[in-house]
Amino acid sequence: MSEEHIDIQDPYDETQGELRARAMRDSLEQFDLDEEDLALLDEDFDYGDEIEDEFGLPVLAVIGRPNVGKSTLVNRIIGRREAVVQDTPGVTRDRVSYPADWAGRRFTLVDTGGWEIDVKGIDRSVAEQAEIAVDLADAVLFVVDATVGMTDTDERIVSMLRRSGKPVVLAANKVDSAMQEAEAAYLWSLGMGEPYAISALHGRGTGDLLDAVMAVLPTESAVASALPEGGPRRVALIGRPNVGKSSLLNALAGAERVVVNELAGTTRDPVDELIELDGEKWWFVDTAGIRRKMHRTTGADYYASIRTQAALEKAELALILFDASEPLTEQDIRVVQQAVDAGRAIVIVNNKWDMVDEERQAQLKAELERELVQVSWAPRINLSAKTTWHINRLTRAMETALDSWETRIPTGRLNAFLGELVAAHPHPLRGGKQPRILFATQVSNMPPRFVIFTTGFLDPGYRRFIERRLREDFGFEGSPIQISVRVRERRRR
């Protein structure tokens, strides 16, 4: 198969191309087409789903010491099991936002990690994130374990909340029956007003609690800004544990937005952050590291893996991070394949470049060419999240990948391209027969998906050849391409 390049863009005539495509479409009537085929051919082009973002709404922060049931209450309020919950303290570490509504009013609910006194390391970082959540909220929901009663930590939280000046609603959790309501009454001594006796696990009393929250929560947020029309693009930071996803998010945000620790698997819940780069706003989503054998993962890490997959499905683009200082692993390759299978635009980021010498650079280049041949079309950026070196190169790479992801090739141009391609490089004979391409159409973008109608099976090698030439002539840098072949026989008269 000759490698001479076919340039059909200059001589292509749009009017002639459309007429030719229409004639090829009409010729399909001679072949047996099922209802699904006709639906694909007659359906208007799918430009992808509109992504709605919840932002600019009043913000309610959920605060309390570890293991009082904050994430359970969050799940109860939003009506689904979204936040990771486990019967051990310290499962939640970052501040995580969720859209919620009550009595016709929408608001943003922020789950936080447990606040503790005089802690160090990762626990100190968790407590700091909880304090930031209070500063960036319009009101606070203070959760206390009624079965334990008031503790020194609760009193310190009260002092912190009073300094903030934010309206506070007190929730006395784990009151599972009327017999335990007396325990909640003791919490009047905290001086934070009426303690609302609730059971986050069973839903008892949460309606009255939310009514009280709505009474103090403003209708317009004083801390959250409105999104531009259409909403920012969503970018998921994915990779195996400890490759620097959270560090990169903090570097892009210019602040300690998420907890960073040498401990692998620090992040558990996906964390959304609105960040402005080069005058344009983006939603960046920090995710938990994708582990090698998810079916063997248990507890909080298992649910964190599920949340990561869900965050990837909601995103438009995946920034796949590698630790450039270490050899590529099977785990890294699996992460790449996961993003490709999800059909997301892709940019590969080699992080920790400040720890890479010349010998390792050559090794990494060879590893990428050998192990990631299936995504050779993805842009690659070398950077250091720790030193912020080259992070300014991300914007252009992300825009390129997303433009490719949204590309639509007119049907006339697509069929003209395939006609020239087949004329120069026909499909090899198989059993004395040669499959013929009847018609092709792009049925969707985000990612680009093509359906080709043929008279016979196309070899996988020839499909890859078509994909490669599509990329050479139309770009698609950073975007996966899906090609489906439908073999149809001529209708018998």
Describe this structure in words.
The chain is an alpha/beta fold. The protein has three domains: 14-47 and 408-487, K homology (KH) domain (GMP Synthetase, Chain A, domain 3, 2-Layer Sandwich); 59-216, Rossmann fold, CATH 3.40.50.300; 233-404, P-loop containing nucleotide triphosphate hydrolases (Rossmann fold, 3-Layer(aba) Sandwich), CATH 3.40.50. 34% of the residues lie in helices and 19% in strands. It is built from 14 helices and 15 strands. The protein has helices at 14-27, 35-42, 70-78, 121-135, 152-164, 181-185, 206-216, 245-253, 299-314, 330-341, 358-371, 394-405, 411-424, 460-474; strands at residues 59-63, 96-102, 105-111, 139-145, 168-173, 195-197, 233-238, 271-277, 280-286, 317-323, 345-351, 380-382, 437-444, 449-454, 482-487. It has a six-stranded mixed sheet with strand order 2-3-1-4-5-6, sandwiched between helices. Helix 1 (14-27) crosses helix 13. The longest helix has 16 residues, at 299-314. The two termini are 38 Å apart. Mean pLDDT is 81; it is low at 1-10, 44-55, 86-91, 264-268 and 294-300.
Search tags:
Rossmann fold, GMP Synthetase, Chain A, domain 3, 3 domains, single chain, alpha/beta, 14 helices, 493 residues
